[in-house]
Write a structure and sequence with these properties.
Elements lengths: L5 E6 L7 H14 L3 E5 L2 H6 L3 E3 L27 H13 L4 E6 L1 H14 L3 E5 L15 H22 L1 E7 L6 H9 L4 E3 L7 H13 L5 E6 L8 H11 L4 E6 L11 H19 L5 E6 L2 E6 H7 L5 H10 L2
């Protein structure tokens, strides 16, 4: 692989707290190693439209604490075509870029692998998604912050649930993965947790709520991942419970996109800094098609293809613990 003189960095897919901290780390690692750095606005779409800008150490001051991404993010249908990817490659060559760091999720990584296969262009991935559903890392950027946001919101909802003796269904993000629901549910002391990975059944839900009532609980919280496999959305779940357990006064709260925003936690800032520096160092060492991640508090690398295909499995021990401590 030829010597790396200039690296481009982008954020792609859904935004996640910690993305700015990762951009900052990439830019400053480039400055430290005396390598040029460009930022690509709006992900692959901006790359196709040649929306690139020179970045230096001062370009990224005071962004480590900011949520979202200063480079913006967008979906790109055109990048899914060979013509679109060719245009993106030509723009990188025009700017003298030798390698690219992609901060995003599995969709972003799939694009990066295809791009490398077609043009032999070096890429390193940094996992940035609140869902924490990427193989090869125990934590993705934004996951810890999203958890804390969800727990704080659920704590506040419990105050009003207790005041009015109500049952609240709280929906958190996680269409295909229940990491936020499971961990936030345990952390906030939810009476029941519904996640995509486990179909516990509606009978089990009713039984659990009846058990809570018999135990003297006058209010309850049920945390629901948006991809729960019960076959009902959160409003239908609420109606089902209210029709079968009329003694409950049921309310629904959907946390939605607030989980993706906000200032990143210290954990996410430190993780982003470690992964950003490592991504630059891997490229300078002639490595490509790797994703950086965290395992046993050590920064590791995994092939991007494996990260996409592997899948991050739910902690079933935590499900068991949840059953025990919600009695």
């Amino acid at each position: 692989m030829k010597k790396i003189n200039k690296i481009a960095v982008m954020t792609s897919g859904g935004d996640a707290p910690g993305m700015n901290a990762a951009i900052r780390a990439v830019v400053r690692a480039c400055a430290y190693y005396r390598v040029g750095c460009l930022g690509i606005y709006r992900g692959y779409e901006g790359l196709i439209e040649n929306d690139l800008v020179e970045l230096n150490a001062r370009s990224v001051h005071n962004i480590i604490n900011k949520g979202g991404t200063i480079l913006k993010s967008a979906r790109s249908k055109e990048f899914r075509t060979k013509e679109g990817r060719k245009k993106a490659y030509e723009n990188l060559i025009e700017h003298g870029v030798d390698a690219m760091v992609v901060i995003g999720g599995d969709g972003s990584f799939t694009g990066a692998v295809t791009f490398n296969e077609e043009f032999g262009f070096p890429v390193i991935g940094i996992p940035g998604t609140i869902d924490n559903d990427i193989f090869g890392t125990t934590h993705t950027l934004g996951y810890d912050t999203a958890l804390n946001t969800a727990v704080e919101a659920i704590d506040k909802i419990r105050d009003t649930a207790s005041s009015h003796n109500r049952l609240f269904f709280v929906e958190v993000m996680g269409r295909d993965a229940g990491f936020i629901a499971l961990n936030a549910g345990v952390g906030a002391g939810a009476e029941e947790i519904l996640i995509p990975e486990e179909d516990l059944g509606l009978d089990r839900l009713l039984e659990s709520l009846q058990k809570s009532r018999r135990a003297g609980k006058s209010s309850s919280i049920v945390v629901v991942a948006e991809g729960d496999k019960s076959g009902k959305n959160v409003y239908e779940l609420a109606e089902y419970v209210e029709s079968n357990l009329p003694e409950y006064d049921v309310r629904v709260c959907i946390l939605g996109h607030m989980q993706r925003g906000g200032s990143p936690s210290c954990f996410d800032r430190v993780l982003a800094s470690r992964l950003g520096v490592k991504s630059v160092e891997l490229l300078l060492d002639g490595k490509t098609n790797l994703m950086v991640g965290l395992k046993n508090n050590e920064v590791i690398s995994t092939s991007i293809a494996e990260a996409i295909a592997g899948g991050h499995t739910i902690n079933h021990e935590l499900l068991r613990i949840s059953d025990i401590i919600t009695t």
